[in-house]
Design brief:
- This protein is α+β, with helices and mostly antiparallel strands and 267 residues long.
- The protein has 9 helices and 10 strands.
- The protein has 2 domains: 66 residues, Phosphorylase Kinase, domain 1; 187 residues, Aminoglycoside phosphotransferase (APH), C-terminal lobe (Aminoglycoside 3'-phosphotransferase, Chain: A, domain 2).
- Strands 1-2-3-5-4 form a 5-stranded antiparallel β-sheet.
- A hairpin with a 4-residue loop joins strand 2 and strand 3.
- It is globular and about 60 Å long.
- It starts with 5 loop residues before the first strand and ends in a 5-residue tail after the last helix.
- The relative contact order is 0.13.
């Protein structure tokens, strides 16, 4: 079977049409086969939980490059839907919270530990000195553990709206751990990530995402066994882990955020 039309190209792979109802994710030349296997295993575990995710069929080699065959998901992302229905943001926030709550009820095994991944990210983080990293790693050891399914990159552009309902995509950062680590990551992505200076209506977008975040959190904690106050404990290590992604536009702000809060650990 030869690959068909190129649908998308990212930093690590290209997506092509494949057989009916399927797509081929073909990793770029030189990309390690182990990374493809790592993603395939994570996607398989997510699928086994019964959550609405793309079906993953096979790990293959195509044209000498590691590749994964996935189910074709037709629709638009929740972010694209929102851009056409901007005043429906309460619905978007509620839907995100409900999907996250459903995910966090599911126990998993075989995925990396979120706490271990956070520690590794902090050790690789730019802008932190050895003492700060040591303190943060020790701080993570004091946080509660759990074995729930975590997405690791849960935001509106990783939720597909289809004729058959919503589907959560892109499970490469999946792990098992405490749900509030995942919520903290979503808060980070939806309120603290860099916004281009030339974005049209930039100020409006900043205000809108803050309102949406409050609505998302209100609905999540209304139906969650956890308390809103418990989320604060997870924000510090999750923000620190973000520094390992080397997003220059965010670094000064995130380092200052960490510096202020890390000083409170021993108080």
């Amino acid at each position: 079977m030869r690959k068909g039309k190129l649908l998308a190209k990212g930093r690590t792979a290209e997506i092509y049409t494949w057989k009916k109802g399927k797509v081929l994710k073909q990793f770029l030349p030189g990309w390690p086969a182990g990374d493809a296997e790592y993603e395939f295993n994570k996607a398989s575990i997510a699928q086994q939980t019964g959550l609405a995710v793309p079906k993953v069929y096979e790990l293959i080699e195509e044209e000498g490059r590691p590749s994964i065959i996935y189910e074709l998901i037709e629709g638009q992302t929740l972010l694209q839907w929102f851009q056409r229905h901007r005043w429906a943001f309460p619905r978007l926030a509620r839907q995100m919270a409900e999907l996250h709550l459903d995910m966090h009820q599911r126990q998993v095994s075989g995925l990396p530990s979120q706490s271990t991944r956070l520690k590794k990210k902090i050790e690789e983080a730019a802008g932190l000195d050895a003492k700060q990293k040591e303190k943060l790693v020790a701080y993570i050891d004091e946080l509660p553990e759990a074995d729930k399914l975590l997405h690791g990159d849960f935001h509106p552009d990783n939720i597909m709206v289809t004729p058959n309902g919503t589907v959560i995509i892109d499970w490469v950062d999946a792990s098992s751990g405490h749900p509030l680590a995942d919520v903290a990551r979503t808060v980070l992505l939806t309120t603290m990530s860099a916004i281009p200076d030339d974005l049209p209506a930039r100020r409006f977008f900043i205000v809108l995402r803050e309102i949406m975040n409050r609505m998302y959190l209100r609905h999540y904690f209304k139906h969650s066994p956890y308390k809103r106050e418990e989320l604060k404990a997870w924000m510090l290590p999750v923000v620190a882990g973000r520094l390992s992604e080397n997003i220059i536009e965010e670094q000064d702000y995130l380092v200052e955020y960490i510096r202020k809060r890390i000083s409170l650990i021993d108080e």
